[in-house]
Design goal:
The complex is a heterodimer of chains A (337) and B (353). Chain A is an alpha/beta fold and 337 residues long. Helix content of chain A is 37%, strand content 19%. Chain A has 15 helices and 14 strands. In chain A, helix 4 packs parallel to helix 6 and helix 12 packs across helix 13. The longest helix of chain A is centred in the N-terminal third of the chain and has 15 residues. Chain B is an alpha/beta fold and 353 residues long. In chain B, strands 2-3-1-4-5-9-8 form a 7-stranded mixed beta sheet, sandwiched between helices. In chain B, helix 1 packs across helix 13. The N and C termini of chain B lie far apart (48 Å). Classes of the chains: A alpha/beta (337), B alpha/beta (353). At the A-B interface, helix 4, helix 6 and helix 7 of A face strand 2, strand 3, helix 5 and helix 7 of B.
Amino acid sequence: MNTRGKATTGRPEDASLSYREALREALREALATDERVFLMGEDVGRYGGCFGVSLGLLEEFGPDRVRDTPLSESAFVGAGIGAALAGMRPIVEIMTVNFSLLALDQILNNAATLRHMSGGQLGVPLVIRMTTGAGRQLAAQHSHSLEGWYAHIPGVRVLTPATLDDARHLLAPALADPDPVLIFEHGSLYNATGVLDRGVREVDLDHAVVRREGTDVTVVAYGGSLAKALDAAEELAGEGIDAEVVDLRTLRPLDDATILGSVRRTHRAVVVDEGWRSGSLSAEISARITEQAFFDLDAPVERVCAAEVPIPYARHLEQAALPQPAGIVAAAHRAVD
Amino acid sequence: MAATRGAPSRGSHTDRPHRARGEPARAPAPEAAHDVELLREMLLVRRFEERCVELYSAAAIRGFVHLYIGEEAVAVGVHQALTERDAVVSTYREHGHALARGVPAEAVMAEMYGRVTGCSHGRGGSMHLFDAGRRLYGGNAIVGGGLPLAAGLALADRLRGEERVTCCFFGDGAFAEGEFHETANLAALWGLPVLFVCENNLYAMGTALAREHAQTDLAMRAASYGMAAWSVDGMDVHAVEKAARGAVASIRAGNGPHFLEARTYRFRAHSMYDPDRYRPRDEIEEWKRRDPVATLTERLRTAGLLDASALEKLEREVAEQIDAAVHAAEQAPEEPVESLLRHVTGRDEEAPS
């Protein structure tokens, strides 16, 4: 069944759409092309998805395949694991990464571990989608960025679609992965709009992408921070500093080659991470650069992370807690000057 | 609450319907052979684990080893109701479940030895026995961690229209975990074909039932989720078999999840590390008088279905089976350490179907 592009949407291919709609098209395609796929989570059906991603899919595919669940993260994530063990291809939606901690036992102790503990007999081809990140004044329990924690775990793949094209085309290869794939959608991106690149049909989950080429400093970012990194690069360009921006896209496994290749060209690195600095993914990336490209560096690796505070509600405090373009620009200056 | 211990709260499943306890022996009937098989399976579990104690003391096997001795009637009885198409989810006290499921003793023993011929290729050990071909999905060391998996396995069957049942074993300790209650709710809400078997051995590690549960009538609590729930004498293999057959038939008929509390007792400590200071000696002795293996043996002997020489032959066959398993495990190769990073992701392995 051909369900790609305008065939499913009736939308002209060059019309703009939102990140939310791009995700929905990916879900629709997955449900339409593989009977093993079903979507399960809190409010994914009648409500249309907590963030509107699955709006209309219940009517199209019915309640067996677009399945509303109770507020029982452990049970429905674990049920997704069980269904994957039995040969289905479940897509489980968790409202936010904060709530995923209620299912952390299932994700870490079962999904990530069963293949190894069973000596390779069992696989868990499961996709878990969740929102991450701050910026919408939702306060601490809806705003954290814990994807770096998940990237710590062997046995899972961690994806952070930062662009419309990734949102649209990342799901199919994620479903084809024989292992659990966690997809982190930054909450500030759902309303972002643009036009899909008709040349993109599938996303390479193994490689980071250079989103902007440059010669003076490498800015490593992902997810919700990518746009901030690109904004910073534009500002730096106005000052005569040519920044290269690398979008990690996949936090586990990390694509060392692309990161290090860029740093070896620019000799300077700034790592942007919405997680807290202590024990963060930025620390891991900084360590890898230092371990593998120390003698290529002309300056210490800089990091721009969230402040070491639970994310506050008040807008000015929330914004102050998060990485911002100005902070990225300042970090680049420290590296270059 | 101690008064509820040991005695079924609802439904009396003290024996099979076709032969009441103490009834005079009749000519050997087809069920006689069945009963001898039940005894053989329970003996295999019992003697296998007794050998594990020796091997552990000799440091041939290591890690946490949780013995099932005293609880054999539950695994063996429940498995009479299951077919190879059904699925089983187990816990860390699972030697009995694996053996009753038909996993060869060689494969289980090799796993205890950490050998590559083990049923989990030496990656799991005593607490993580898997057999994908026999639909044995662990071996979960997180108390209650297997419960949601059972709901998912059953959900997959439901979505594909398969008439299969998923049987999930767990203990009274797991009943206190949120995962039991989340999963019971989900399974009942969606009418999933799950048999929840709570092996209530009265202790969550070292904590007695009444010290871990405000309400110790577990079947009543399970029933509150809208599923059929029974308690059964877990020391009586016939009672367990009868209850399990009834529950599985009802699940297959489309009546949604069922709950079976098997009241049982472990004769040994929680694990090999446990000094077992929390249980009165006379309580242990009292339960040992209801030993499910001895009880069935005596029943068969009284009924004239098993004489001394037949029992001796049975014991010898089981001992030879275990000897062979130990021998094979000792001879089996270890996985080369160069293979350490295998089985982390499936990219290099055949994708699961």
